[in-house]
Description:
The protein is α/β, with parallel strands linked by helices. The chain is built from 21 helices and nine strands. The strands form three sheets. A five-stranded mixed sheet has the order 5-4-3-8-9, sandwiched between helices. Strands 1-2 form a two-stranded antiparallel ribbon. Helix 7 packs across helix 19 and helix 8 packs parallel to helix 12. The protein is extended, with a radius of gyration of 35 Å. The mean pLDDT is 89.
Amino acid sequence: xxxxxxxxxxxxxxxxxxxxxxxxxxxxxxxxxxxxxxxxxxxxxxxxxxxxxxxxxxxxxxxxxxxxxxxxxxxxxxxxxxxxxxxxxxxxxxxxxxxxxxxxxxxxxxxxxxxxxxxxxxxxxxxxxxxxxxxxxxxxxxxxxxxxxxxxxxxxxxxxxxxxxxxxxxxxxxxxxxxxxxxxxxxxxxxxxxxxxxxxxxxxxxxxxxxxxxxxxxxxxxxxxxxxxxxxxxxxxxxxxxxxxxxxxxxxxxxxxxxxxxxxxxxxxxxxxxxxxxxxxxxxxxxxxxxxxxxxxxxxxxxxxxxxxxxxxxxxxxxxxxxxxxxxxxxxxxxxxxxxxxxxxxxxxxxxxxxxxxxxxxxxxxxxxxxxxxxxxxxxxxxxxxxxxxxxxxxxxxxxxxxxxxxxxxxxxxxxxxxxxxxxxxxxxxxxxxxxxxxxxxxxxxxxxxxxxxxxxxxxxxxxxxxxxxxxxxxxxxxxxxxxxxxxxxxxxxxxxxxxxxxxxxxxxxxxxxxxxxxxxxxxxxxxxxxxxxxxxxxxxxxxxxxxxxxxx
Length: 553
């Protein structure tokens, strides 16, 4: 129906006006029918979208349940049910428009690394003029199996003594250094299992069994173990902070724990049976076995609220250093201290271990940054902000009011964290007190949501650890570095399972730790392995890693 213009409506007769209105009513009914159909179609699409979302959630839940069941069958911890809150990523400053991206690697950067040169002749007709060369750099990798027969000269001196020509450096048990270098790198850095590594070597042409590969990976690694221990000692002496974390591990068919200790320039892993504070302090001794009673040990005991009379008894006794745990226990028994009181023995032993740590010059000003686990709470401790905020993120509100309270508190924490990060970049001592007052305002807030209020009280009690950065701006606000490092252990556990022998456990910890340390120091792990397998200090080009760790002070 064609509608008349606005001017012509006034000139319409009564009959024409009635017909126009009737037509408009019919058109309105048609539009209402179309709108109803569109609404029905829209609702159908919404129902389909909701159905697909529920199916997706169901599939995700089924996948999570399958993963949890696999983890249970493997005696591994399940995946956490909560996603990361995103506080650290959301509070990062946005990059500027003129920020340059990292340059990719190109063949031009390999000009100084050319190993051989090949001249390709052209089939040119007579009378042509030579105009030089067109250069192309080609990357190539040569992997070939060799079986070398060494004929060692044997001489007998006049006095009957036999002289045998020595083998080249690095040959152990009929295995050359190149093969050991390849196996150690592929297993540690490449995360290749022993079965697949054996298949790869057999495919290349190396006739070797799985048991021989296992021996390559777990034996004759004393040199690497010694350097790993030196790295730990150098890190604990020079590092301004360490971040720590742990994850589950299986050894000899029993549950264990792998502890990560790392800094900006080093990483160390240690696998044991217990995740207690006593075990953690034993690791911080960095290979020393003694127990020491000194001022640091006595202060630790007071911090643990040990009976002052027992502290006085230990402080006045002339014996201060004990070579082993048995010697320490005998000393406590001679001092008439009840060694069968487990809580008392644990507190005293922790103090003696802390005294040994400080006696050897370790952890003098080093701050321990952790996720708040009890075994890591020792003197000079800082708490990870990401893990603290995650506790709020994991709350399950039951009403809209509780959900709004959680979101409000999270927004306050995020704003405070962002301001703290900005202050850390340009610290100003005069602003530190303002941060402490602002912290009190945020964490003394009461919302009426009981779980949230209890959590805020709990976090407020950890104020000195959460605000440790105000006294030490050089420490990080989170333990993301530890979680990134320890992921290598988690991947190795998923791929290869647990370890059986003590040598296998030590080999896994040592090689993964050295691999991460090399990466932080900018050293090629493959070159490092080959350099150390030469067994000739005069031919080594890479200095001791402990020296490189200590050099970055």
